[in-house]
Amino acid sequence: MTAADTPAIAVKDLSVVFGQGREAFQAVRGVSFQVREGETYGLVGESGSGKSTVLRAITGLAPVTGGRMEIFGQPLGHDRDAAFCRTVQMVFQDPYASLHPRRTIDATLSEPLIIHGIGDRQERAERVLKALADVGLGPEFRFRYPHQLSGGQRQRVAIARALMLEPKIVLLDEPTSALDVSIQAEVLNLLKRLKDEHGLTYVLVSHNLAVIAHMCERLAVMQHGRFVEEMTVEQLRAGTPREEYTRNLLDAARGYDREKAARFAAMEALEEE
Amino acid sequence: MTTDRQETPAALAEHTQEDKGAGTATDAQAPRPLLEIEDLRVDFHGRRGITHAVRGLSLSMGREKIGIVGESGSGKSVTGRSILRLIRPPGVVRARRMVFDGIDLLSADERTMRAIRGDRIAMIMQDPKFSLNPVMRVGDQIAEAFRVHRRVSRREAKERALEMLKAVRIRDPERVYHAWPHELSGGMGQRVMIAMMLIPEPDLLIADEPTSALDVTVAMQVLAIMDDLVSSRGMGLMFISHDLDLVASFCDRVIIMYAGRVMEVIEAKRLHEAQHPYTRGLLASLPRIDEPREWLQTLKRDPAWLEEA
Lengths: 273, 309
Description:
Radius of gyration of chain B: 20 Å
Strand content of chain A: 15-25%
Strand order of the largest sheet of chain B: 7-8-9-3-10-11
Oligomer: heterodimer
Distance between the termini of chain A: 48 Å
Structural class of chain A: alpha/beta
Number of helices of chain B: 11
Number of helices of chain A: 10
Helix content of chain A: 25-40%
Helix content of chain B: 25-40%
Largest sheet of chain A: 6 strands, mixed
Number of strands of chain A: 10
Largest sheet of chain B: 6 strands, mixed
Order of helices and strands of chain A: EEEHEEHEHHHEHEHEEHHH
Shape of chain B: globular
């Protein structure tokens, strides 16, 4: 296998179990997928389907109990080292919770550089300003606190922080689901532009099929910790998923309909039996 | 009894003890609207001046599904709360007129309001996690909601609560009745909330983002329950949401709000023909599965939208 063929991310038979014994809950059950360099790969599913847990497993934030993961061919062990952090970064769902409320934007953006021993004070200041400009925020934001920012601006800061170490892979966990639709459009456009400019690889987790369809080339539908199916965005758009579950998600995303609702109720009844 | 409740025999029986609506002259031809609001204004007085949350909203609704759509800060939730007079100081609510089924909501005393809240006008909040009492069994909460408004025995209230849980398609009502709120999933919790709000058979249901915490397939079922109540019992539904597509497919009419002002009122099925640049901008900013495009359109906000018409 040549270097060019090495996937950016390779996940094989990943399992994640929270808790132990009787309390154990298997959040991810034997999931395998590969993401090519430069691709945007989507994970879509309802709440509790395990989609965010897959991202957290990659970053070492979830208790992995089985399977293998590789980043550019390098197997991931139990711990994540500094090199991993310079390659893989994550943007979280809630920009209100993911920024330290009592640190200025400058402190938040400088921290990764300080931890990794990058640059002196002067260089760090320059990189913070460049990062802000990259995400469409002016220099006046540098010494503000998160509470002085709108939700969309906070998410821009969270994206800037993820890019401070110039990673190759960015994991996006519902990056726009806490935002209004007009702000969502701005943030999605920003993510697309940054991907082009920095040559990034994305894994995007969302419950919103339209967002996934807009951003991704390929996607996997998850339910109960498993992949229901993997497909290209063209297959999704053509409305030809193999599995009924995916077709239902597509149906539901297209709006309310009395008969649809009755069908979902009937299916849920079957599932519970 | 009022004339316009004839279409709702189920609700009719419940309200005979107090005839709350009589006394206002009604046009014999047109049925009296269920809710009429003229020039609603809600201000919040803060340290840094006054925030105008709602600036001159007018609406008249019958026993229909009316959607109120807008982004955060548009005043849609505040509108819903104002109707129930749930805005507290430093909030100030003013209106030229706010009448519910012949009752002037602006001048009604607190006792009248208490009789209306939860009984004739009910409200479902977004997140059941924060709206249910965490230290009270689910069933007891539903039964209590009923006993506050009706003189019934505990046993009768329990029976009604179980019936209601069945009506919101909970398959094992006995188990859920005895469950604690933290034992319920989001979808279950929201159905419990809906059961609790519907048990006194309200004439008007204000639902503030009732499905946004739910998975799409569950959301569909919850919407169907409310849809049935409007068509079978003649309830009026005010559906507050940020989701344009959902409202367009679910409601009869849609009010689009921006920064406390009504931008447009439009028939739901004609929403995609909306004329107002704000509505059009919002629709254009949505990614769509069937219409791939490289970049999403972003919204250009026009200060003129905020000016008084």
